[in-house]
Specification:
The protein is an alpha/beta fold. 36% of the residues lie in helices and 13% in strands. The chain is built from twelve helices and 13 strands. It is globular and about 65 Å long. It binds pyridoxal-5'-phosphate (PLP). Residues 69-71, 95-96, 98-99, 141, 167, 169-170, 191, 193, 204 line the site of pyridoxal-5'-phosphate (PLP).
Length: 415
Amino acid sequence: MPALAALGGTSVFPEGHAWPTWPRVSPRHEELVLDVLRGGWWFWGSANDEFAEKFAAFVGARYAVPAANGTVTLELACKALGLGPGDEVIVPALTWCASGQAPLSVNAITVFADVLEDTWCLDPAAVEAAITPRTRAILPVHLYGRMAEMDALLAIADRHGLAIVEDCAHQHGSQWRGKGAGSIGTVGSFSMQQSKVLTSGEGGAVTTNDEALYRRIRSYTHVWLIAEDNLEVNNLHQFGSNARLTEIQSALLLAGLETLPDDLLVRERNARHLDQALASVPGIEPLRHQPEVTRQSLYHWTANLRLADFGVSRDVVQRALAAEGVPTILPYEPVYKSRMFGYDPVRTSISCGLPAGTLNYRAQSFPVAEKISYEIGLGLTQDVMLAPAEDIERAAEAFVKVLSAPDELRKIAES
Ligand SMILES: Cc1ncc(COP(=O)(O)O)c(C=O)c1O
């Protein structure tokens, strides 16, 4: 095996090698956006309606409401479910801050629960342990390249009469036993921000099979204008907001939706290849294959590093891989560790109906989430996962090269 590139050896990828870039623009994007520009109607028009219909069909939900982004969609879901002061919502400790903030945005209480080490998603046993008489909902996040354990979570929700808000920001098109992520729980929430596999730069959508919820969510995105089919501007009778997705964004999403099923297969095939190539390589464990996941839309390919015998930390492996030409990424920080959760919500705009100081998120500890985030988690982003099969094969070679050289890794650590 040649020397590691980080120590002056030749890298697996030739200099100047380019990975796929994102977002991708096709002639179809241009065509559909031009149609909107020429049509002269830039919000709540036919592109928006068409996207809602096609996205609902893609997810397998009865309804989809296009919205401004994947933060507001989670907030809309909490609001439409009628969550409020005193209500508790169980959220994974490892996710993007938007999932942790959403219950607080309606003055409900976020209750964090730990995740499973082999999927990085909500641990059903931890959910069960976190349930109190005030629990109203579970907010599982299908994180990066795996889905939350939906069989167990549905059973818990059923037993305790809880709603499920699926955060599908990372899973456009994944399926659990043939059912689309976002159609399994009570409400699904999607982000179409620039890094996501379906994107309009900013954007989002809420999905549901429940007509009453659908009508409420759609109303909230549009100052309650369509409540009870009431289109009279002078007849607004509840607080709504403006969370609309524009026509231009809808056109971009319609173009993206046309190539998403094929892209999804490319990423899934590449992920399977990496999983298999690295299955018995010491020092790395791709996350557990979930047989219930019948289609996996992949935001990041993810693995746990097992470096106890190597005597080096994750950043050394990351540096060595970068020198070989493989750009890896680390997982999120556990949400409750972020500075925003250090503030007493009572002293910000949020009260949650609790006395000041009751909520002290930063004092909490979820060992699995912390281990994944700070020590063992590593990923490849979805754009990289769109690479041709031969580049994925080389990426696997680079992992093997780096993890077969513990002595050299220790030298990098010392340098
Ligand atoms: C898991 C998760 N939920 C929600 C969001 C929020 O989406 P947006 O950036 O569109 O507001 C993100 C964004 O990265 C996310 O990763």
